[in-house]
Amino acid sequence: MEMKDQKIDGGKPFDWGRTSMDYAKYRDIYPQEFYEKILARGLCMQEQRVLDLGTGTGVLPRNLYRYGAKWIGTDQSENQIEQARRLSEGMEISYEAVPAEELDFPDESFDVVTACQCFWYFDHDRLMPKLYRMLKSEGRILVLYMAWLPYEDAIAGASEKLVLKYSPKWSGAGETMHPISIPNCYGEKFQLVYQEEFPLKVSFTRESWNGRMKACRGIGASLTEKEIAAWEREHRKLLEEIAPEQFEVRHYGAIAELKKVGNPVINHA
């Protein structure tokens, strides 16, 4: 499903379904430390019912499955959900292809709602009341993020410049370590109870880093096949010149935990 938002990439359309194969192969890259931050909050474990918004290829449910939570992953892209189901074979994880704003699970269905790498894509004025209704008393929303640091890592910086050559309005560039921003509409019904940012190093080969960059919004999700092929030729050549066969890229992770508070939202519609 194609998305378009003037606040993202200058309104250039993108569709994560177009890059689902590369996404499945190259974007399951979060180090164990990232998951330990979640578990340290006592979340996504021990029979908790968890809803993962914008699940993509199911990276979060698959990697946290062994800790005992009961997962449902949703994403508006059928292609992404198809890959999630394939990669989750043998796990009791449910997936649904549905936009977050159209979710309609029963009241108090979940202990935790997670959103990793996707929170800024949602219409929060529509979504927030639904999450409030679907969460149990004192339920949690866990917003998660990880990004490379182009000003601190030479390989990341060079790759990012090449993305900008092909997608000049790509708004994913220029990351620095900063807290996750929570829309104001959550203030009445949720309380921010925890926030943290932390440095990470993520291991890659030339092949896996090329795949990771190709599966970003500025390339695989938005360019034509001809443009993607031209970018990839240049990027592989660049990596041969500047990167060893194996290397680490500096990233940072961020987490924001919201607790359900206040009075129930009444929907008169």
Task: Note down, in words, how this protein is organized.
This protein is of the alpha/beta class and 269 residues long. It is built from eight helices and seven strands. The protein has helices at 20-26, 32-40, 59-64, 78-87, 124-134, 154-166, 206-214, 225-242; strands at 49-53, 70-75, 94-97, 110-116, 135-148, 190-205, 246-260. A seven-stranded mixed beta sheet has the order 3-2-1-4-5-7-6. α3 links the parallel β1 (49-53) and β2. The radius of gyration is 19 Å and the shape is globular. The two termini are 27 Å apart. Mean pLDDT is 95; it is low at 264-269.
Keywords, separated by commas or semicolons:
269 residues, alpha/beta, seven-stranded mixed β-sheet, 7 strands, disordered C terminus
pLDDT average, as an integer?
A: 95
Separation, N- and C-terminal Cα atoms: 27 Å
Classify the helix fraction into a percent range.
Answer: 25-40%
How do the strands line up in the largest sheet? 3-2-1-4-5-7-6
One letter per element, helices H and strands E, the order comes to HHEHEHEEHEHEHHE
Number of helices: 8
Structural class: alpha/beta
| Rg over CA atoms | 19 Å
Largest sheet: 7 strands, mixed
Tally of extended strands? Answer: 7
Proportion of residues in β-strands: 15-25%
Give the uncertain stretches in residue-range form. Answer: 264-269
Instruction: Assign an overall shape.
Output: globular
Task: Write a short abstract of this structure.
By secondary structure, this protein is an alpha/beta fold.
Topology:
Blueprint: H1 20-26, H2 32-40, E1 49-53, H3 59-64, E2 70-75, H4 78-87, E3 94-97, E4 110-116, H5 124-134, E5 135-148, H6 154-166, E6 190-205, H7 206-214, H8 225-242, E7 246-260
Parallel strand pairs: 1-2, 1-4, 2-3, 4-5
Antiparallel strand pairs: 5-7, 6-7
GO molecular function, one term: S-adenosylmethionine-dependent methyltransferase activity
Organism: Candidatus Limivivens merdigallinarum
GO biological process, one term: methylation
